[in-house]
UniProtKB/TrEMBL annotation:
InterPro entries (UniProt xref): NAD(P)-bd_dom_sf (IPR036291), SDR_fam (IPR002347)
Lineage: superkingdom: Bacteria
Keyword Oxidoreductase among record annotations: yes
UniProt key word Phosphoprotein: no
Transmembrane segments: none
Keywords associated with the record: Oxidoreductase
Family of the protein in this entry: Belongs to the short-chain dehydrogenases/reductases (SDR) family.
Name this polypeptide is given: SDR family NAD(P)-dependent oxidoreductase
């Protein structure tokens, strides 16, 4: 069983981030909780310290700012052996109508910060010969999605980036994993502003965390795991369709819903 000792979790104030925090605390890991909403982080930290007897530190941060990963590494004292890059959000609009500033922030959080955080913490994991980095992607990664063009492309980047780093880090004993959930009952769709982007049956955050931990517990770990059998089958099936037909189908599904 994968046994973390001190874990950094971004986007920890709600949804998947809070669920990751609860699951890792239950395994005995101390935590560093990162998000913008300090009050939620403090409440979660107090809960987990009381229930599990671990130490939970709170670090409010805006990951859309340049150098977010380096700033986190500088602000956190001591060793981190597990990084959960969970922070991210999506937007839903035709690109021609989208707010350019919102798209810029979406790329900054979903792509730039994830890369910077991975780069900031990976050297110490490689040096220690252990630990894990988990990057939360999405089933949106496996096909372009009209009306969510930036989000789908960002998550596709996360999967591709993670697979490459998995190969680089594997000889050093470091686990690197991309987790691709489908529609999950979190605040994601509140931020997006519509459930039109939800395709398939909703999962609960705990379902995604179980998928992640099962993958981390394996002796020989894959680079990518999709949460949910139906989601995994759908992700596999995207390989069988011509790219343009697949994109049109994804667009129709989003519009119809």
């Amino acid at each position: 069983m994968y046994q973390p000792t001190r874990s950094l979790i971004t986007g920890a104030s709600a949804g998947l981030g809070a669920a990751y925090a609860r699951a890792l605390a239950a395994r005995g890991s101390d935590l560093v909780l990162v998000a913008r909403r300090a009050d939620r982080l403090e409440a979660l930290a107090a809960e987990l310290e009381a229930v599990h007897g671990i130490r939970a530190e709170v670090l409010p941060a805006d990951l859309s700012l340049p150098g977010a990963g380096r700033a986190l590494r500088a602000a956190i004292g001591g060793e981190i052996d597990t990084v959960i890059n969970n922070a991210g959000f999506g937007s839903h609009d035709l690109l021609v109508d989208a707010d350019p500033e919102l798209l810029e922030r979406e790329i900054a959080v979903d792509v730039t910060a994830l890369v910077d955080i991975t780069r900031a913490f990976l050297p110490e994991l490689v040096a220690s010969g252990r630990g894990a980095i988990v990057n939360v992607a999405s089933t949106a990664a496996f096909q372009p999605i009209p009306r969510m063009a930036v989000y789908g492309a960002a998550k596709s980047f996360v999967v591709s980036f993670t697979r490459a780093v998995w190969a680089e880090a594997r000889p050093h004993g470091v686990r690197v994993l991309a987790v691709a959930p489908g529609a999950t009952r979190t605040e994601f769709f509140d931020v997006v502003g519509t459930e039109s982007a939800a395709v398939g049956r909703f999962q609960q955050p705990e379902d995604v965390i179980r998928t992640t931990l099962r993958a981390l517990d394996r002796t020989r770990m894959r680079s990518t795991v999709v949460s949910g059998r139906a989601n995994a089958a759908a992700a596999w099936a995207t390989r069988l369709m011509p790219a343009d037909a697949l994109t049109r189908m994804a667009g129709r599904l989003v519009e119809r819903r």
